[in-house]
Amino acid sequence: MRADRLMAILFLLQRRGQVTAAEVAREFEISERTARRDLDALAMTGVPVYSTQGRGGGWRLLGGARTDLSGLTMGEARALFLVAGPASAATPAVKAALRKLVRALPEPFREQAEAAASSFVLDAPRWGSSRVEHPPPRFLDELQDAVIHGVQVRLGYVDSTGAETARTVHPLGIVAKGPSWYLVAGTGAGRRTFRIDRVTSADPTGDPVHRPENFDLARTWHEIADEVDRRRTPLEMQAVCAPEGLATLRMILGDRLEVGGSTTDGRIEVVIRGHSEHALAHELAGLVAWLEVTGPAGVRDHLTAIGNALVERYGP
Fold it and tell me: Which is one Pfam family of this protein (predicted)?
């Protein structure tokens, strides 16, 4: 996080020409002592920054009160503002400072820098249990360029059944979900999501993307992920839970748990989503001290079978 802040302080210097430790402290919501330490750290890394004392003093870059940001290449400007986007782990203060720098960029860079900041979402939890890590897919850079430049792409794709297709899509954003990468795009059949490791070709057409009004990638991905989670866990099970077990249930089940109201005996009604009756029974059997399943009957039957098997193996 400090590296992000140092980079943001450097560009703050470039934009304003001179800053004081108090101004840096206010901008990044840190103490003046920390601000002075960060400015010293910039100098120690070789950045030509120095301080002047007295009235009107402060920190500035060697060679003039202002450094021209036009020295940035287009790619560097886009990379910088990826840090300010929803995928970044930077603090809100750092993101806010980086976004302010858009105004200091040369006009030709500004639109693409802003597009870069909203082109990518990081959704760290993965679907499924696999822990195998994969390198970034082949066409990731080309598709992100298409999102940032706002151009349609002729996409070659192999679906989960192995069928090969080719279609023209309107790239809207890139999402990293665990180790997998996805393209969110508009198509003639509506919005679709494509796994980028299944893309076999990505050729820009030069035609502009038709972007839905008020499109927000983070909000759209939340809707997509919720839909996928519900398809992966189509079964709903009803139960009542003792209040002291609810925190454990939330930790184990996450978004698959819906909490309802209290019953007359003080327990709490819950709905739990799962893949199947058998899977839910095995997942929840160890929570019998807190949880009573009320339906469907098939889950209760599986729990009975699990209990009988445990008694037969471990009973007296």
Answer: WYL
